[in-house]
UniProtKB/TrEMBL annotation:
GO terms for molecular function: DNA binding; sigma factor activity. Belongs to the sigma-70 factor family. ECF subfamily. It comes from Gluconacetobacter liquefaciens. Residues 33-100, 135-184 form the RNA polymerase sigma-70 region domain. It holds the Pfam family Sigma70_r2. InterPro entries: RNA_pol_sigma-70-like, RNA_pol_sigma-70_dom, RNA_pol_sigma70_r2, RNA_pol_sigma70_r4, RNA_pol_sigma_r2, RNA_pol_sigma_r3/r4-like, WH-like_DNA-bd_sf. This is RNA polymerase sigma-70 factor (ECF subfamily). Keywords: DNA-binding, Sigma factor, Transcription, Transcription regulation. The keyword Transcription applies.
Length: 190
């Protein structure tokens, strides 16, 4: 099975992995979480303006917090992705504060529990995540596969074309059509 064939875990799978880390410090579950979240967190941090080395360091900090604080994850309050990206947001803010203050060693570590997003924010994020999941279910199998590869696995279009033995133009057309359908299904949130 190649990376392109690996199934994208859903929210329940990710929550179960976090629960395994919390309950028994399951290294296999943590490795799966790391493999799934680390590249996504790093991409988020890079898009938020962090440079390569700083984004890598912040990603390591995020994943360490996931390991250390897995027992604080409450799937009733937020989805796994929402929880991890709330941690990433807080770590990013912490890194910015340290960089701007010039005193990294004197800055207290940001406690993600104290600065967690509000219940309303988490609820809205979970509702949006569910709408997106339902919208994805409305796509054709071909479109859903290409969206999964392009957006969730961050596979370049040329690699998708090779992996699925499709012309590059077909891959791009399916992505474009899928995005139109997703925007229509999700509404004004997109």
């Amino acid at each position: 099975m190649t990376a392109l064939d690996a199934p994208v875990p859903d929210g329940a799978d990710l929550s179960a992995l976090i629960a395994r880390v919390a309950a028994s410090r399951d290294r296999t579950a943590y490795a799966a979480l790391f493999k799934y979240f680390a590249p996504r967190v790093k991409a988020y941090l890079r898009r938020a303006g962090m440079e390569g080395a700083e984004a890598e360091e912040a990603t390591q900090d995020v994943m360490l917090i996931v390991w250390r604080k897995a027992d604080r994850f409450d799937p009733a309050r937020a989805g796994a992705t929402t929880w991890v990206f709330a941690i990433a947001r807080n770590v990013r803010i912490d890194h910015l504060r340290r960089r701007n203050s010039g005193a990294a060693s004197t800055m207290p570590e940001l406690d993600t529990e104290e600065h967690a997003p509000s219940a309303e924010t988490l609820m809205l994020a979970d509702e949006r995540e569910e709408r997106i999941r339902m919208a994805l279910d409305g796509l054709t199998d071909e479109q859903r596969e290409i969206v999964r590869l392009s957006f969730f696995s961050e596979t370049p279009h040329a690699a998708i074309s090779s992996a699925l033995a499709l012309p590059l133009g077909t891959v791009k057309s399916r992505i474009r059509l899928a995005m139109v359908k997703l925007r229509a299904a999700i509404g004004n949130d997109s």
